[in-house]
Every structure is written in structure tokens, then in C-alpha cells.
Amino acid sequence: MIESLPRREREVFETLCRLEASTAAGVRGALSDPLSDSAVRTMLSRLEAKGLVARTSDAEGRLYRPVQRTEAVAASALRRVIDTFFAGSAASAATALLGLGQKLTPEEAAELERAIDQATQVEGSKS
């Protein structure tokens, strides 16, 4: 569903996912190319009507949260990037990420090694 959103709605939704919960003003301030306050509120209302965003009220006013878990949204967005820019190859995407020059912590390196081990195990084999 997220892939079918108009560009600006998707940007508002992805910004809200990054923030995990926020007011309309908070979302607006976090956008790379800010929209008017009323435009952000309208888009959040549209996203709520589509079942992607939930709204609650607290002392700060209306607080918006993504309905889906952020991990699920991130996986969908990453799949879209891999399909678009890396011809569907997760290995090419991972190589590109590692080529950005950011050093991995020992914990991150161990996690990556575990993921590679799991991805390369033949189903039904025990290693």
C-alpha cells in the first residue's frame, strides 16, 4: 500500500515512521522540503483514513503514529530500493552500504555475520 501513495504522502508517512510518533508540527519540521502546516495535517488525515496512521490526543495536542510496525515499513522501503537500484540483489545493496565508509562496531559485524550465515544455509541442512 505504501508504494501506491502519492510522493508527498509517502514522504510524510516515512517521516512519521522515522519519528515513531509526532505532532503535525513535528512532522512538518522534520520534512526535508517542508509543506504548509495545513497540508501536513491534511496528509496525516488522509493517511489515517487509509489505515496507515493512528491519532491520539495528549497534552501536546494530536499525536500521530504509524499503525504498522516501523520494521515492516522499513523492510518494504528497503525492498523497493533494492529492486529499483540494485536489480533485486540484496548482496549488491549490502556491498554498496558497506562501501560508504562507515565503520561497523564489533556487535554490528557479528550481527551481519549471523545474517549472512542464515541467508547461506541450505534449507534442511544443519551446520
Write the layout of secondary structure elements.
Layout: H1 7-19, H2 24-30, H3 37-49, E1 53-58, E2 61-66, H4 70-85, H5 90-98, H6 106-120
Summarize the structure.
With 127 residues, this protein is mainly alpha-helical.
What does this structure look like?
By secondary structure, the protein is mainly α. The protein has 2 domains: 2-66, Arc Repressor Mutant, subunit A (Orthogonal Bundle); 90-121, no CATH class. It has 6 helices and 2 strands; from the N terminus they run αααββααα. It has helices at residues 7-19, 24-30, 37-49, 70-85, 90-98, 106-120, and strands at 53-58, 61-66. A hairpin with a 2-residue loop joins β1 and β2. α1 (7-19) crosses α3 (37-49) and α2 packs across α3. The protein is elongated and about 50 Å long. The N and C termini lie far apart (38 Å). 13% of the residues are buried. The model has no long low-confidence stretch (mean pLDDT 86).
Q: What is the CATH architecture annotation of the largest domain? A: Orthogonal Bundle
Q: What is the fourth-level CATH superfamily of the largest domain?
A: Winged helix-like DNA-binding domain superfamily/Winged helix DNA-binding domain
Stretches where pLDDT falls below 50 for ≥5 residues? none
- Count of DSSP H/I helices: 6
Order of helices and strands: HHHEEHHH
Classify the helix fraction into a percent range: 55-70%
User: What count of structural domains?
Assistant: 2
In angstroms, what separates the terminal alpha carbons? 38 Å
Mean pLDDT: 86
According to DSSP, the number of beta strands is 2
Class derived from helix and strand content: mainly alpha
Radius of gyration: 18 Å
Pfam family, one: Penicillinase_R
Keywords: DNA-binding, Transcription, Transcription regulation
Protein name: BlaI/MecI/CopY family transcriptional regulator
Family: Belongs to the BlaI transcriptional regulatory family.
